[in-house]
Predict the structure.
Amino acid sequence: MNNRMKWYAALACIGIAGISALAYIQSTKGAPAIEVSTYAEPGAELAAATELKFLPDSSKAVPGMQLAAQSDELALYFNPETTEIAVLNRKSGKVWRSNPEDLGSDAKASPFEKDRLAAQLTINYRDAIGTLGTITNFTDSIKREQFKAEGIENGIRITYTIGDTSLGIDALPKLISKKRMEEKIYSKLDEATAKYVSNRYFPLKDNPEVLERLDTAVSRALVLTRMLDAFAKAGYTAEDLAADNQENGLSAAAGANRPNFTVPIEYQLTGDSMTIRVPVRDIKESEGYQIRTVELLDFFGAAGTAEEGYMLVPDGSGSLIELNNGKIGEEVYAQRVYGEDENNNSRRRGQISEAARLPVFGMKSGDEAWFATIDKGEGIASINADISGRKNSYNYAYASFAVRGEDELEIFKGNKVDEIQLLTDDVYKGDLQVRYSFLSGQDANYSGMAKQYREQLVKANILKPKEASSKAALPFYLDVLGAVDKRKSFLGIPYKGLMPMTTVEQAGEIADKLDAAGVSNLQMRYVGWFNEGIDHKVPKSVSMDGELGSKSELKDLAERLKAKGGSLYPDVAFQHVLRDNRDFKPASDAARFVTREQAMLAPINRAFNAMDLSLGSTYLLSPAKLPYFVDKFIDKYGSYGIDAVSLRDMGDSLQADYRVSRVVFRDVSKNIVTEQLSKLEKSYPNMMLTGGNAYALQYADQLIDVPMSSSGFSIADQEIPFYEMVLHGYKDYAGDAMNLDDNQDLNYHLLRSLEYGAAPHFFWSYESSSKLKFTAYENLFSTHYTDWLQKAADLYGKVNQALAGVQSSAIAEHIQHKPGVVEVRYDNGTSIYVNYTDEPANVDGVQVAAKNFMVGGDNK
């Protein structure tokens, strides 16, 4: 029986109630952990509140609502009866509402769906046995008049009490002695009413002197009303109830058997935007119920069936979902920001998709648009969108937040398996905050949204403009494969050996040949150069693999590349422990699933569509241990005298750690990672990052493997280079290695590079890739550099000629003139026209040949 089966068997023996008491921790001690609370964002204190006073409003711009706050650009309106809000764009006169104005006339929506349309907050929760429930602030707070509105600086705060907080059936004693029933109830009622009550209470079998409430009868609405009236007529008080509950060993908590939550929401105008904030630490939960996710403003700015436009979602490079596109048979859009959390024990492959690298979404409707950024809590956020016609008549997009970790526990019972959903007891304590900005006219499109977000990042000092240079060449990104594991044998005894694929000397030879072929500004990432190859040991120490060369040779290579105008970036992985060794103790250093297992992953076996441990395994390092290993790496790597480093996973993936004694939520993990990136940047000012999640952008000198496409979800209609539109002119970047892409057509990659403003990127080895057969690296199926060098140099020449002059220019506008024909306009006046189709295209008088491009514009 393997460890996982033993764990399940242990759980089956002790039962679910005992899960929190089970200690599944080995005694070995690993790397020291940081104090996680130092990196947590506990959330700002609730702003000082005053009595809500409305401002004078002569315009009456939003009938039925009152003016609560305003800035030069916006006005915030509030309905004190429904708690709906509306934002007036004072420049254009457009009003954006938290809920559809005409939701009551929606013929598509059911009564339940209409209640959801009227809500500003939806909570998904689990009860004590794991059953999932949903509750909204409209049905269970606004309708019950259980909310309080207050004024805060330039905004309002609404505190909702969501759920049935009355005692209901629990206002009647569950158990009561015969003596007290006679004294407190029967003696004070008429004979008929007393008999009615007595028929709903029966003596306990093991104690006839105590009466028990017959819930199957009392729970009926009419019966409950009559019973409550009878007890009230008898003068039965809350003190009487508490006394009876105490006498019979029962809880006296009001509403303890029903879910209810207290949630504050703050709306505030800040210049040209509105923020909505939920301070999670101020949320209160009723006993036995745990919040799983919080959904905010599901229907803000929702568009009806007559409106034209699209929703922007951050899938990969970006996608557009056309309003009312009729795709109600397709799955709704739902995607976690920064990709899926690898820390889950499903061991099954989910949907293969691009990651959402940016925490943004938006909607264009006619000549107006709104654009949202998740300012706080984005590490635990998901972005959701759907079209009209499925459940209601509206198109809508919103953010949701998983404030607890969740996983699935399988309990093996003979040949049966029970699946139980578990939530962490710990809850995320930071703020959830979404910022809404508003665009009009020519800016009301995804190009305007990209500009808006770029300006936000510049203002936050995350992006800085590149220096303009007419002579600078476009980067050429080259990953060079150093050494890999390969099964070998000695005297018939098998062992795992190291096979060099590209030595330091050979990497220099490739660089020379590229230089001779006209490739300049070579940015070389050396992968698999230390601690036993590409799947290296945890970087507590840094030992150059002798099969590849020496430390001095590596430094010489870095200096040779620098002399040619390029750089060398030795590559290191921190968050994924690729090879187990004595410097890493899984029991203490690995992250934990919610189920308490060590977070161990394995490659997917395509035959079973599931992880297969026989193919090898990888541990997820606990974020709490990351600073220790980063410090050790900096200390050891410093002796190499190289001022650059490539970080394989710190800008690409984000994972939690659900160890019971030290829960690290993804948003806290984000803070840990960004601090380590800042630390590494101070030591190595030239950093190359893969993936390019938003929190890592500030620290990247070079970005590779950025998204160059979307996931192609069926509900979407068009993929766009939104990610690149934000970054161009501020960061150098490239997509995935072209020679490893499923599409081996370099002309297609040429056109895509020109549309996305991206530099070429290849992954090569000096030795033939045929040597990788029957190894774990068969996915590197076409790396032999001789097969690609001249083709790559030719492609680079064309891309460099077109893009070198716009490297420091921002993308002002991206236009799809027709399917397969696009124009990219830069703020220096240059336009690049790309034609993917098999037919020539004419764009505003510019002729573009089939499957070709043209550079034009005012700057040409």
